[in-house]
Amino acid sequence: MGAMRQADTIATGEGTTLLGVTGLEVVYSDVILVLRGVSLAVPPGSIVALLGANGAGKTTLLRAVTGLLPLHRGRITKGHVTLDGRPVAGRDPAEMVRAGLSQVMEGRRIFAELTVEDNLRAGGYVVRSRAGLREAYERVMGLFPILAERRGQVAGYLSGGEQQMLSMGRALMPSPRLLLLDEPSLGLAPIIVEQIAKIIKEINAQGTAILLVEQNATMALSIADYGYVLEHGRVVKDAPAPELLADRDIQEFYLGVGEAGRRSYRDVKTYRRRKRWTA
Amino acid sequence: MTNFLQLCFAGLALGALYALVALGFVVIYKSTGVINFAQGGLVILGAYLTYNAHHTWGLPFYLAVPVAMAICALVGAATERVVLRRMVGQPPFAVIMVTIGLLFILEQAVTSIWGFNQLDLGDPWGIKKVTVGGLNLAQKDLWTIVLAAAALAAFFVFFRYSRMGVAMRATAFDQEAAVAQGISARRVFAVSWAIAAAVATIAGVMLAAGGGGLHSDLDIIALLAFPAIILGGLDSPGGAIVGGIIIGITQNLTAGYQGTGANHYLGFLGGGFSSVMPYVVMIVILMVRPYGLFGTREVRRI
């Protein structure tokens, strides 16, 4: 792939893309423009990171892909979303799950009143065959042994890290081809974040492509193949993950490892301004 | 003592009716967030449908009831589909007004189809009684308790273990997260209404059976069941049952001991206090536990 922009491959119809987003514009309540022409691509079996500050439009992008926009009075006004090259924008969430796309929502959103086991059963709602359900359950238990220990407990009593694992396990129950993760590191201790990162790699190694939405850029880029940076509803930069990790702007703004004396708020503001002009 | 036990027994039967109606309220409230004032309309619709299946179509009584339950469930699901689904996300007050409107429509529909006259449901129990250890127990009351217990047990097994039951509980807790997992919230809503209508049918049949007669005013049961719902907690199916039984027994004991005569220890309350008593109990319990005995603390009150 090299320096070639992944999004371009969908536009020209070359190559294989699992998830393709082209020129996507999303408006909430008919007035608030949140995405202003976003394009990105997730090839099968890859890990793609989507970075961006609060309010950049990351979660909105996920909603547009999963069909949850209408629940938030949002609407796609321009652009396309494709799965396996076929347009899927406007499909309802259940259809998307059946098509092989599953998500872990921001803030985990586990069913706190239900047991761990019932959370997983709810996750496997679209799986009709008993054997398929069994198989997915065993796989999740293999990935998250802690859930097996806690399977009879009410999910609300799990620790934050365990809840994140349950949320991921629940999303894996339909055996998706693409897993969307919205800020899995949010509010977790660094050691747990490391553990989550390892599990994400493992899920990926088992053949599931991953779109990882994160503010923790270090973690995301350390496991991703490719990364996009979203700012004010636009992709302002996209490159293979190692390239992004080495990028000075990214280091400064997202990794907080700029040159000495250049970490003040004013410098960040300068960075923002520069970004806006060049975008 | 015999008198006391007898009053308790009849109170339990009454409480079982309240529990059935209350369960309908709770199931709909839990999954859709709607307080369904049309529940009483479903109660009478179910009873009239049973009458129709038994007398007009000539089905035996034990078949007429399940047939009526199925039809009433379909009507419930259709109501949700046609009317209430459009109200999703609208202000709670508007939704409540819609359900009150539905109640009036159901009342009028029932009288325009089956007339104003009191009808005889033709139940197999009538006013027959059995005597157990000196207690005179109405057969109808025994059957009410048995049928209610069976319906409630079936509901809990379904709610706890079935795929749909898990989906219903998940949707009740976090609708968006459930939808994101591919759970069809629409189907959950429809099933909730169908269940509420089916249990309402049982309540309606038992209410009209035993010589009570079938008339459209029976929908008042839903209002009488309201203290039971609030008492148990608006979002707790188990609470609906406990609340129903507490209210049923309280009401019946008050009825037995009020008024004048020997052993009428509550005579000072005067006659007719039994219909006030459920609300007194409700208010006292709400003062101690504002979200009901088993309700969730953050339940939105309206």
At a glance:
The complex is a heterodimer of chains A (279) and B (302). Chain A is α/β, with parallel strands linked by helices and 279 residues long.
How would you summarize the topology of this molecule?
The complex is a heterodimer of chains A (279) and B (302).
Chain A: H1 6-12, E1 19-28, E2 32-42, E3 47-51, H2 58-66, E4 74-83, E5 86-87, H3 93-98, E6 101-104, H4 116-123, H5 130-143, H6 145-149, H7 160-172, E7 178-182, H8 190-205, E8 209-214, H9 217-223, E9 226-231, E10 234-240, H10 241-246, H11 248-255, H12 265-278
Parallel strand pairs in A: 3-8, 3-9, 6-7, 7-8
Antiparallel strand pairs in A: 1-2, 1-4, 4-5, 9-10
Chain B: H1 2-32, H2 39-56, H3 61-82, H4 92-114, E1 129-132, E2 135-138, H5 139-161, H6 163-173, H7 175-180, H8 185-208, H9 220-224, H10 226-232, H11 237-257, H12 277-288
Antiparallel strand pairs in B: 1-2
